[in-house]
User: Fold these one by one.
Assistant:
Number 1:
Amino acid sequence: EAGVVQSPRYKIIEKKQPVAFWCNPISGHNTLYWYRQNLGQGPELLIRYENEEAVDDSQLPKDRFSAERLKGVDSTLKIQPAELGDSAVYLCASSLEAGRLYNEQFFGPGTRLTVL
Amino acid sequence: QKEVEQNSGPLSVPEGAIASLNCTYSDRVSQSFFWYRQYSGKSPELIMSIYSNGDKEDGRFTAQLNKASQYVSLLIRDSQPSDSATYLCAVKADFNLFFGTGTRLTVIP
């Protein structure tokens, strides 16, 4: 079974430029998460989707970040414009329904973003 | 705020020894607990999940949960150099996972 797929794996951009990350979850997983992980820290949730609905985007900086999950499968996370502080690893994860007690999340390889 | 606390380490153990990793959490209603392993430059990999008080064993790994003390731990028996990684404790609350900062483990050959 294929795992969570993300692209690109690495991205280097200059500040004020836009950037987008793509994620394809594990087949059958209707819940998709975007996390940001700074160096030496644990992942922090940015947004959670149940199918195509963003059910928790409370931690998403909406002035510059946006996300979409059309058709409830693939998802794209966008930053426009990027700032120096956005340099981090952006992780996508997927799971079965988040409300399940036995709700295991599986992570993709991540995108390492460097903003110069 | 859901807080998950871990000793950042580094924790060093000799090969073949038992490594003990600890985690405390603040949310009393949390029901699901997870341990992830993260190698340097890689993404977190789920290695254990536990939902009930007591011990859960899987190969060389044992997860221990004490909800009354809001404490979860991971024991790694017969530690190997390949176990050297950062171990992240994660607690599920409000449908989301909250992670600790991780404990860096080094197994010395």
Number 2:
Amino acid sequence: DTGVSQNPRHKITKRGQNVTFRCDPISEHNRLYWYRQTLGQGPEFLTYFQNEAQLEKSRLLSDRFSAERPKGSFSTLEIQRTEQGDSAMYLCASSPLFWTGKVGHGYTFGSGTRLTVV
Amino acid sequence: DQQVKQNSPSLSVQEGRISILNCDYTNSMFDYFLWYKKYPAEGPTFLISISSIKDKNEDGRFTVFLNKSAKHLSLHIVPSQPGDSAVYFCAARSGGSNYKLTFGKGTLLTVNP
């Protein structure tokens, strides 16, 4: 397994357009997370899935954002009517269903998708 | 409210010396604390973690100390190497079942040869 894969790596879009990002987690990981990182900040939690169920959404996830994880495998994050404030790095992570935290390698991040809204 | 704080935006040390990165938190319900290293245009890479019931964890050149009464943790890197230059994030895991991580803003470490 090559780890968590995110596509595309970079996306430039015009304000008002819709964009979709994809995340392929580590195959045996049941949990999948989306985070957003803006300049000068740490990653901020957006949402998480356990298998195909979306179990928590941050208040940062406005109505223009939607995430899916059909069949509990890959996940997509869609942003509708993009705004300049959406420009950020969008990070995906995955972990096993039971993660003690002792072995941090169990919680693995992808390389992210850098979104620029012009 | 920022539950995990890294008050030093940057730190510069000489190669071979000790690097000490600090982190403070406010939420007593965090059960694990993790340190991540991040290069530009890459995702965070796990370095070391510590349970909230421990006060020290060591892995090679990296040691994390936790002072629960002060709600403070620190990462020590000894000896520092130029390849350690990166942004370091402190993160805390929410106790419970969702495994959400709360990150600090990061500290840019520069190790000078």
Number 3:
Amino acid sequence: EVQLVESGGGLVQPGGSLRLSCAASGFTFSSYWMHWVRQAPGKGLVWVSRINSDGSSTSYADSVKGRFTISRDNAKNTLYLQMNSLRAEDTAVYYCARDHGVVADLFDYWGQGTLVTVSS
Amino acid sequence: EIVMTQSPATLSVSPGERATLSCRASQSVSSNLAWYQQKPGQAPRLLIYGASIRATGIPARFSGSGSGTEFTLTISILQSEDFAVYYCQQYNNWPLTFGGGTKVEIK
């Protein structure tokens, strides 16, 4: 059974940093591209970042480019999102999602999310 | 950036009735369109991709249609577990974008 479990969320002050993790199990993690998608409270879904299977290629939404860094450790089956210079508008539930693979840029499995709150 | 617009924002339907949800893209996305279902406090679940292909394990009462800029998700006979928010997503162009969602509520 595919499982994605996020952790690392919490309350952080504006300008602060946080690192999210997503532990994957039930599939060959190193074979799949992975994504982060966020959802502000009461709002819709917004794609944040993507990383290819070996970590050599990444993409970011303009709103986080230069502040967030996606990475992965295939030996630990874990995806990361390093978030720096956090702003109030980064407040959201952050989901990690597996890329479908056969159909690129489609999210076939999602974690339950971790809440990040940026507030003073 | 391709803007995805969903309508209506809220759809009130009685159990057993049909629900029809719309999604419009600001420019053609071919058939690279997916639908997700999200229940309160839960992660989204993939329902439909390629505009009309049901994902693994999705009941046949869910169907998708359309191409280019106009898409429809139809739930033929609404069950109690289908009351949720539905999002469309285009994966034809970067950045990937979602619609604002349609909430299907009990009438």
